[in-house]
Design goal:
Length: 163
């Protein structure tokens, strides 16, 4: 068997979820390899979900989610200018999407983080830990040249949650 399960959590929702008349149960298993060393990891290498409904959250940056298209640079002038501040603003934008769907950061099973400078990833991870706590979604972090919203954007995050 290629995987070893470190824990599984049964989560019951007592409220009606999205377009279902009945509460949903989901089981989330964080999977680690059998030969994994005993060390703290900020993410799970694999996650298996049974039950629930998938929520796909579009990429968010520190910029306002609702902005004009074509873009107007002045709409982004109030963005923080450091990675920690931009990560916090992006996660606050992500939280609005989670709230709108009845999800929380603990429901996120996968996230991709696109950054323009990997040398700032420690400040990104510090803020990330504030929002995710013990939740460890499967994550990928990729350095890119520039984000589409505005050249001042340093990070974009998209995620998948299961509720």
């Amino acid at each position: 068997m290629p995987y070893a399960c470190t824990y599984a959590a049964e989560i019951s929702h007592s409220e009606v979820q999205s377009n279902s008349e009945f509460p949903m149960n989901k089981t989330v298993e964080h999977i680690h390899w059998p030969d994994a060393p005993d060390m703290w990891m900020p993410y799970a290498p694999a996650i298996k979900v049974t039950g629930g409904s998938h929520v796909h959250l579009a990429g968010v940056t520190a910029a306002p989610v609702y902005h004009h298209h074509p873009h107007r640079p002045e709409e982004f002038d109030s963005m923080p200018t450091d990675m920690g501040g931009q990560t916090r603003a992006a996660l606050e934008n992500l939280k609005k999407g989670l709230d709108a769907t009845g999800a929380t950061f603990g429901d996120i099973i996968s996230a991709s983080r696109y950054v323009t400078d990997l040398s700032d990833q420690d400040s990104m991870n510090e803020v990330w830990a504030e929002y995710f706590g013990d939740a460890k979604p499967a994550t990928t972090t990729v350095q890119i040249v520039q984000l589409a919203t505005d050249p001042r954007c340093m990070i974009e995050i998209n995620a998948i949650a299961v509720v």
